[in-house]
Design goal:
The chain has 365 residues and is of the alpha/beta class. 35% of the residues lie in helices and 21% in strands. The chain folds into two domains: 2-146, 3-Layer(aba) Sandwich (Rossmann fold), CATH 3.40.50.720; 150-311 and 332-362, Dihydrodipicolinate Reductase, domain 2 (2-Layer Sandwich), CATH 3.30.360.10.
Length: 365
């Protein structure tokens, strides 16, 4: 009896750690996005289990199952059924941006957390519906951007808020994009909705404009711009007849300015930013390299950073898992956070309106 009691007490004592040690079950909702390979084609950390995969396109589901050697028990063509059968802790959405709302509508009432690919939504209306559902059912609703994993992104933020470094932030310029989705060999399933003004919400202005909007909102600690001015172009209407392939967006704040250059016309892939203060500047070249110059520097200095130098999650699914476990708290103005990304959608919608009307759009509460 004494031995049994001791064993019971041991189980009770270790129960919280035991629960936290259980792998987080993640399911996939939609796989037409090219970034779905990040979870389907890679070995996941030991603390994460791929619990199920939903895709409405049966041929795409079959092709992906063969390509990634997926077990039949993981595959579903009905989202609700998958959620009820596999009962995941969280879902990652890799379908069209328009479909993000329906994923949250299915997951939120079931208490399932969601991470969508950037941006959060195709419109402010969709974004606010998603925000309302997330708050009502108390789920985490995150938005994933590749630049959120970059050590240089985290280091740039740290340096901007070091008062002795750049003298604050006065101007930020963001360059995001590549040669064009068709030009780089994007799959037909991805290209079909990426170049659709309804399913994607726009062209390059949405696909790559969201990066700058997300980063600038973070750098401004959640502050919304006073106004948004944008110009879009169709340099390749024969390839992208229904959406823009080039966009320049100017965000005006009381004491700062952001310039977003989103393009499907760059001669090569790029995701970099330039940050200027009163006394110095920072240029992030890629995920690891940056150039800096401070008042006493006679020339530009080059720096290199890795996750060993500054804490950053290299794997968005590990970040999601730790949020689900309550190991980390998502700050409202964080890169993945819902308030930040609702603001991103407000900026993008205002930018589309500005480009369509040729007028500056004022943002107010």
């Amino acid at each position: 009896m004494k031995t049994i009691l001791s064993l019971f007490l041991l189980i009770v004592m270790v129960k919280p750690d035991f629960i936290h040690a259980q792998p987080v079950r993640i399911a996939v909702a939609g796989i037409s996005h090219g970034h779905s390979s990040w979870i389907l084609g890679r070995k996941l950390p030991d603390d994460i289990i791929l619990a199920g995969i939903y895709e409405s396109n049966p041929s795409l589901l079959r092709e992906s199952a063969k390509k990634y050697n997926l077990q039949d028990r993981l595959l579903f063509n009905d989202l609700g059924k998958m959620l009820d059968v596999v009962r995941p802790d969280a879902v990652v959405a890799f379908g069209s941006i328009y479909d993000h709302l329906s994923v949250v509508q299915a997951c939120a009432p079931r208490g399932i957390h969601v991470m969508v690919e950037k941006p959060l939504a195709v419109s402010v209306d969709h974004a606010l519906q998603m925000d309302s559902l997330a708050r009502k059912y108390r789920i985490h609703l995150l938005t994933n951007y590749e630049t959120s994993w970059y050590p240089t992104t985290a280091k740039a933020y740290q340096l901007i808020y070091d008062s002795n470094y750049t003298g604050g932030l006065k101007k930020a310029i963001f360059h995001h994009g590549h040669e064009g989705p068709k030009e780089i060999g994007t799959s037909k399933a991805f290209l079909d909705w990426l170049s659709d003004p309804v399913q994607n919400g726009g062209g390059a202005i949405i696909d790559f404009g969201c990066y700058g909007a997300n980063l600038m909102t973070w750098l401004m600690k959640g502050q919304k711009p006073v106004s948004v001015t944008a110009v879009t172009r169709q340099f390749k209407p024969h390839i992208y007849p229904r959406v823009d392939d080039e966009a320049t967006v100017i965000l005006t704040y009381k004491d700062a300015q952001g310039i977003i250059e989103a393009s499907w016309n760059w001669p090569f892939n790029r995701k970099d930013m330039e940050l200027y203060g009163n006394t110095g500047y920072i240029t992030t070249i890629n995920r690891n390299d940056m150039r800096i110059r401070r008042p006493n520097d006679k020339t530009e200095q080059t720096r290199q950073y890795t996750p060993l130098d500054i804490a950053v999650y290299e794997n968005p699914f590990s970040y999601l898992a730790d949020v689900v476990r309550n190991k980390i708290v998502v700050a409202d103005d964080g890169l993945y956070a819902l308030p930040n990304n609702v603001t991103v959608v407000r900026i993008l919608e205002a930018a589309k309106k500005s480009a369509a009307t040729g007028k500056t759009v004022l943002l107010n509460d």
